[in-house]
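Question (not urgent): is this output format expected?
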Amino acid sequence: MKNSPKTGGYLHILKYTGLFGGVQGLNVLIGIVRNKLVAVLLGPQGVGLISLFNTTVRFISDSTNFGLSMSAVRNISEDYDRKDEENLKEGITLVRSWSLLTALLGFFVCIILSPLLSKYTFSWNGHTLHFILLAPVVALTALSGGELAILKAVRKLRSLAVISVLNVLFALVLTVPLYYFFRNAAIVPSLILVALVQMILTILVSYRLYPLRVSLRWTVLSKGWGMIRLGTAFVIAGILGSGADLLIRSYLNNVADIEAVGFYNSAYMMTMVYAGMVFSAMETDYFPRLSGVNNLKFTFNQTVNRQVEVTLLLISPLLSFFLLFLPQLILSLYSNKFLPALGMAQVLTLAMYMRAVRLPVEYIPLAKGDSRSYLLLESAYDVVLVVLVIIGFRQWGILGAGVGIALTGFLHFVFVYVYAHHHYAYRMSTVVLFYAFLQLTLGILVFFCVRSDVQWVRWGVASVLCCTSSVVSLRVIKSKTGLWNTLVSKISNKFSRS
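Got this back:
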């Protein structure tokens, strides 16, 4: 049976969301083992140190990479789709040349700023050498980012999936023994080792497809100014985002202690990485599709609404069960020392419902090429996030920090939707609104049930609500995609040929 255009659209979204979500799920499973071992070996203090160092590296990287990870994909994709081999190779050389420059820039910026980073990140100024030693991580990340952008642009999705899985697997095998023997002293060397492994894995694939060509001549580099200008908004947004994250963690470390950062990071990473299993398809599949129809008003709205609908239906049952088993997951992923993070993780799980509805709409300015609007929306989010997290932490501790993040997500959704409605004539369909209201209501009810001390409410009622969310999503996905008929047809064809 052939799918109608309507059905085919839902099937396409479901297919690629499942593909990249599955890869992310495998990464999470491998990461579970690594996180557990790291948490047991280093405790909250070590996890907090890793969090602060990683956040700092990301901040420097986002500040110096000129947004190549996004703008390079768009530039190279145009030549790849036109099958213009000569311009494609020239574009790849250009990306690699600029990646080398950004790697050198990030390397020296990290070294120069290391005394300031040590002073303002920690309550005592004793980590300058650590930040100097992290400079190679910034450089390696920039080089890897350029090659990953090339692979995305030429649609090497299978290779990207393999690199992602191998990178997590090597991180487990290579770093855990270092933590076992050297404890906190192994944190910085482990970060360098992981960045080096990722770069090696990436260039082994990328260089085989397109042999290394780099040119630092001005006549070559000057052709990249359009790409650099396009990435400026991403750079500024990245600086603000990473800066907000760094500011929050530094604030927690200074007004509380490094264990508070560990609790904050464990709750944040569990929910964000988990939700990333579904959100991972956004940049790789949804963004190019949305860009391709940005001049077709009806199709554009339809593309956004379908993405919101499928994302919400897929993630809602997972979030409800995640809420139900969150205490057990914390014990499995970390240890009982991290149970103070439970309340924050529960609130952040609720916030993921709003993110499922908001994130597809956030891509509208990017698809329209409206970098100023994208920067405005992201800047507003970062400012409000810092303010509300600090207020929430002062009032209710780690739980309050989660409330601050959740409230920021809701306010940002309202702002993004109103902006998209006014500037791009985006209209959220009544069907999407209905499913969002239904699934969010079920999620809120599960949230209150799992926080109850009454066992039959905690497990019995919550389990029924989780199953209800699953049944609703499965029935809608089945009706929208014809998934059941497609599976039956494939199985029947397989047996008829055998």
